[in-house]
Amino acid sequence: MLATVACLIFFTSISVEAVSNTPIHWGFKRAKGEVPPEAGKTYDALLEKYGAFYKGDPEKKVVYLTFDNGYENGYTEKILDVLKKEKVPATFFVTGHYLQSAPDLVKRMVSEGHIIGNHSWSHPDFTRIHDEKIVEELEKVKKKTMELTGQKDMIFMRPPRGIFSERTLQVAKDAGYIHVLWSLAYVDWNTDNQKGADYAYQEVMKQIHPGAVILLHSVSKDNADALERIIRDMKGRGYRFASLHDYYLERQWEKDQLFH
Q: Which segments cross the bilayer (predicted)?
């Protein structure tokens, strides 16, 4: 009996430790000359294993606009106005604080055809909390979003602080989520160090590339002021804006073709 228990403990420890919880702080060498960035084979394989992604097809001039909304700073309404005017879909990754403090804006996002993604309830480092807590963080956002907007399906999530591990990838996938990282971003979240719309425009445009998943923070005045110009000039370069649902459906179609 003791031998059986010891054996079970041994195999349990192997199972638990087989999935690494080593924190990964997402980052890569920025794109240049419209050539997509590369995170490297190791990260590419890890993300692929769990259905996560950070960029789309490098052969197609299709881009995906995403915003992280931790709190409202007075600029989201202008951002939504621009998106509506330019007929551009976006995904807004929201926290619990945002859902509670800006419910009308969240409702508007969904009513105008945008996706609400999960950015966790309290924005913790997922690698430092238990599996059950991760699931709770995600479920609370999903439930509150559905209460506010009626959006029942929530499959996209972005890890708080851009930190994840193989363990957190697995927990999120088991909970029904796809990690959405990014291939284009700049330091835009520091509200005490905004540098103007021209700066924001240049930072985005010099990194643009086919398949870009663009991360912007809605707290940035620079982003709000530069967004219309960014969108129009990207369209002028032949880029098309698509939603993450478009990306997901295309990827599912490609997978289906592999099995036929």
A: none
Q: 174 an active-site residue?
A: no
Question: Is 223 within 8 Å of 217 (Cβ atoms)?
Answer: yes
> Would you call 217 a catalytic residue per the annotation?
yes
User: Crossing angle for the helix pair 166-174 and 131-149, nearest 10 degrees?
Assistant: 50
Domain residue spans of the chain: 40-258
Per-residue model confidence (pLDDT) at position 260:
52
* pLDDT at 7 exceeding the cut of 90: no
Of 114, 179, 209, 217, the active-site residue reads 217
pLDDT in tens, 89-144: 999 999 999 999 999 999 999 999 999 999 999 999 999 999 999 999 999 999 99
29: region left, alpha or beta (phi > 0 left; psi from -120 to 50 alpha): beta
CA atoms within 13 A on the CB side of 133: 9
Is 1 exposed, middle or buried, given 0-12, 13-18 or 19+ CB atoms closer than 10 A? Answer: exposed
Q: What angle do CA 106, 107, 109 make, to 5 degrees?
A: 65
pLDDT at 13 over 50: no
- CB contact at 8 A, 141 and 154: yes
